[in-house]
Structure formats: C-alpha cells, structure tokens
Specification:
Length: about 325
C-alpha cells in the first residue's frame, strides 16, 4: 500500500464514517429519549433513496401510500385514545398533527410530481420521509412504551421486515441509484478529493454542531435532555415525555431522509438495504455507549476507516 492508495482509502473511510456518524446520532437521539433501539432506522434511509429515484423518473413513490396509511391509522388511534379519556377538545389538534400535516407532502407529490426541479424533488423527499418515524412511534412503540428494552428491540426488528416488505410491493425488487447533486473533485494537500466526500463530511459536521447547539441553547433541546436523563423527573416538572419522544423520532426521520439522499448516488439501494446500512451506524452508537454524541461520532468514524482499510486487503473483511 503506497501513500496514494492510503489517501484514497482515507477518503472512503471518512465519507463512510460521516454517513455512519449521522446514523449513530439518530440512534443515540432516539434511545436516550425513549429507550428504543430503533433497529429499523436504516429502512427510512432506503425509503428516502427509493423515493427520490422515483420522483426523478417521474413516478409516484410508494412512500406516498405508506405515509397516507400510517397517518390515517395514527389519527384513528390518537382520536380514540382522547375520546376514551374524555379529552374531546384535543381531537382537532390531534387531527392536525397526525393527519393533515403528514399528508401535505402527499398532496404535493400527487399534484406536482411532474413539475419539480431537482431541489424541489429533494425537499419533497425529505417532507415525505420525515413523518414516517413519528407515525411509527405513535402506532407501534407508544402503546408498549413501558415494555423492556429487549421487547422494544424485538419489535423494532420485526418492523424492519414489515417496512421492507412494503417497499418491495411498492418500489419493486430492482436496485436503484439516484442522480447526484454534486460531482467533480478538488485538490487538498496535493490529493484529489471528491466533492461527494466533501458533502458527506460537511453535512455530518453541520448536523453534529447543530444538534450540540440545539441541546444546549433551545428549550426543546433542554426538554429532550431532561427526558433522556430522568423521564419521571421530567414529567413531574411538566415536560411531556411523549411529546419529547415524538420530537426525537421526527429529528431522526430528518437525519435519515438526508442520509438517504446523500448516499443514493454512491451505492445501489434495494428495498431491504436498510438493515445493513443501519447496522454500521448502530455499531458506531454502541462504541459511544449509546449515550454520548461525540463518542458515537468518533466510533462511527473508526468504523468507516476500519471498513475502508480492511477491504483493501480482502473484500470479505469489509
């Protein structure tokens, strides 16, 4: 291995590590707030890439029907729960949150799918994928929120096969690659670095910094931190632990949507690619103890570098 090959492998490792960092941040964010190891998290990434590919090819993405179905069921469950508790005045708000807002991008996709620029396609993809995570939380995880961590993990694993099966029915079995938003390379210290790598690292750094500032300086971030440290204590001081959980899943959905858009042009995505993609971020989160964002980021970069350099000696090591 000479210096040129080492530099190329370093680029690959940093690019992969940046992607795994964003995944690990999502895992840690959800786990610290809800105790849920969101094993089906990678499926949202696969759905994001599949959705963008469908929009780029003028087809209606299967995500549209998935969001619509989840929104209808989540609204029905929430309204029934409120009516049983005698909180009828909160029903209109529940309909707004769980039905109207999630289906807005669905309506936009149905009306505008043939008249979208590349930037608009990306924005619509994020808007479609983003509500899936909180809708899944309301339907699947909230009813069993007091279950053991192991039970929650098993449910999350089962959920992977449900989502993958739905993706197979709506998107098909063929692998896809999306059209890249950036191309070319720049010279850095005498080494040619691809703009895609720069984009990966920049977005990962932006997300890491943004989350750090969010948790430190915003009221919503402090509420999430309080819920993560002591959910019972947070409830006693008036913080809605369920609201914090929904918000954590929403942020994780945004991260997953953007990761799917970033990696779509670089690897072939299939309907069931999510589990293997998410596993790399899961390992990074484990190396961070599932509680520390900086350590999760460091662990993810290590995973990316080890993967890149190990694959040089034997592809099976990857």
């Amino acid at each position: 291995m000479d210096l040129q090959i080492a530099a190329i492998l370093l680029q690959d490792g940093m690019a992969n590590g940046a992607i795994y960092t964003m995944l690990a941040l999502g895992f840690v964010l959800v786990f610290t707030t809800t105790r849920i190891i969101f094993a089906s998290y990678g499926d949202l990434i696969a759905l994001s890439a599949l959705t963008l590919h469908a929009l780029q090819n003028g087809r209606l993405p299967g995500t549209v029907s998935l969001v619509a179905i989840l929104a209808v069921f989540a609204t029905t469950v929430e309204c029934w729960s409120l009516m049983r508790a005698g909180k009828l005045r909160r029903v209109p708000r529940a309909i707004l949150i769980w039905l109207i807002i999630p289906v807005l991008p669905v309506a936009g996709c149905l009306l505008l799918q043939d008249h979208l620029s590349h930037a608009a396609q990306i924005a619509l993809t994020v808007a479609l994928v983003m509500p899936i995570a909180p809708l899944l939380y309301r339907l699947v995880f909230q009813p069993i929120e007091r279950a053991s961590t192991l039970t929650l993990l098993i449910v999350a694993l089962v959920l992977h096969y449900v989502i993958a099966g739905f993706a197979l029915l709506t998107f098909g079995a063929e692998g896809v690659r999306t059209a890249g938003a950036v191309s070319g390379s720049v010279e850095l210290l005498g080494v040619s670095v691809g703009l895609q790598v720069v984009a990966f690292v920049s977005v990962a750094a932006l997300f890491s910094t943004g989350l750090a500032l969010f948790f430190r300086f915003t009221m919503a971030g402090k509420a999430l931190r309080a819920t993560a440290y002591n959910s019972a204590g947070a409830s006693l001081v008036g913080i809605s632990t369920r609201g914090s959980a929904v918000f954590a899943f929403l942020l994780a959905g945004v991260i997953a949507a953007i990761v799917g858009i970033l990696i779509g042009p670089t690897i072939t995505i299939y309907y069931d690619s999510g589990l293997m993609i998410g596993l790399k971020g899961f390992v990074g989160a484990v190396l961070g103890g599932f509680v520390s964002y900086p350590l999760a980021a460091l662990g993810s970069v290590i995973v990316g570098l080890v993967e890149a350099y190990a694959s040089f000696f034997a592809s099976l090591f990857k």
